[in-house]
């Protein structure tokens, strides 16, 4: 089930609340917005007496790309994971433009490893995440001090950043990569480090 756009829903909730002259909470949203959103989000799950489950994908926009705005903030507390689409990656031509740093899954640790994916899944995931975060830090530092001031290690992280976004995150419209192919690709990208 895809719910879109939850931001519009929350804005409408704020307008109705204001029209009813209720005491506003953060940024004018009603204090019961958390309860209202959780009631909607938690409708997904298993159906008693049936196989399978219902997965819900709520979609929302972040006003001014502010992840601390009440709507994405409360949604983050309620849901089991978030996929963060990034305007800068989109501008670079990286599709899908998923920024892995603010994205998360609270269920990942229960769904990876021996018997589900591969033993090295958690390890490679942690290394990719740490290296990407370091690459982003180096990119920010480069903007301040210039490329000449960067160390050889810094240049390795910049190279990793480019390959990670261009080869790992980016996928063609008809590309179907299995989890095992993704893990192999991740190791090949990480081999740039000594």
Q: Gist?
A:
The chain is mostly helical. It has eight helices and six strands.
What does this protein structure show overall?
- This protein has eight helices and six strands.
- The protein is mainly α and 194 residues long.
- The protein folds into two domains: 78 residues, no CATH class; 70 residues.
- The protein has a two-stranded parallel sheet. Strands 2-3 form a two-stranded antiparallel sheet.
- Strand 2 and strand 3 form a beta hairpin.
- The chain starts with a strand and ends with a helix.
- Keywords: Hydrogen ion transport, Ion transport, Transport.
- This is ATPase F1/V1/A1 complex alpha/beta subunit nucleotide-binding domain-containing protein.
Topology readout:
Elements: E1 2-3, H1 6-19, H2 33-41, E2 45-46, E3 53-54, E4 57-58, H3 70-78, E5 81-82, H4 87-92, E6 104-105, H5 108-111, H6 121-145, H7 152-169, H8 179-190
Parallel strand pairs: 1-4
Antiparallel strand pairs: 2-3, 5-6
Helix pairs in contact: 6-7, 6-8, 7-8
Q: What is Rg?
A: 20 Å
As a percent range, the share of helical residues equals: 40-55%
Query: Structural class per helix/strand content?
Result: mainly alpha
Q: Termini separation (Å)? A: 45 Å
Q: Low-confidence segments, ≥5 residues, pLDDT <50?
A: none
